[in-house]
From TrEMBL:
SUPFAM superfamilies: Putative DNA-binding domain. PANTHER family: HTH-TYPE TRANSCRIPTIONAL REGULATOR CUER (PTHR30204:SF16), REDOX-CYCLING DRUG-SENSING TRANSCRIPTIONAL ACTIVATOR SOXR (PTHR30204). Homodimer. This is HTH-type transcriptional regulator CueR. InterPro entries: DNA-bd_dom_put_sf (IPR009061), MerR-type_HTH_dom (IPR000551), MerR_fam (IPR047057). Residues 1-68 form the HTH merR-type domain. It comes from Albidovulum marisflavi.
Amino acid sequence: MNIGDVAQRTGLPIKTIRYYEDIGLVKPSRAANGYRDFSGRDMDRLHLVAQGRQMGFTLAECQKLVCLNEDEHRASRDVRALAVENLTAVRSKIASLRALESRLQTLIAQCHGDDGPECAILEEMGAHQSAR
């Protein structure tokens, strides 16, 4: 299977697939014409990484998941531990985004939004009149 087919099937950009090849995540063989020839194993790896990235796993965590997936003697607790770590990180990001949302709502409410130059949003962000 060529890189275009793989990109279409996995939803990954060709540039990303090439990067994953550069870091050794996939190792497609080369056809006589020099084109990459991806195996079913490569497709499985790329699909797993694509799904993992969509779920918020880092690339390093996805590499661990690939290794665990290919290890017949893996312990499911190792996979679960990675998922728990990821969930903790996701929850932390959600909390940060909620705090940001609250801050923005407050600033928007404080800004008059009229023709005057005073703006609570810019003041909070540290903008100065001398910038004019």
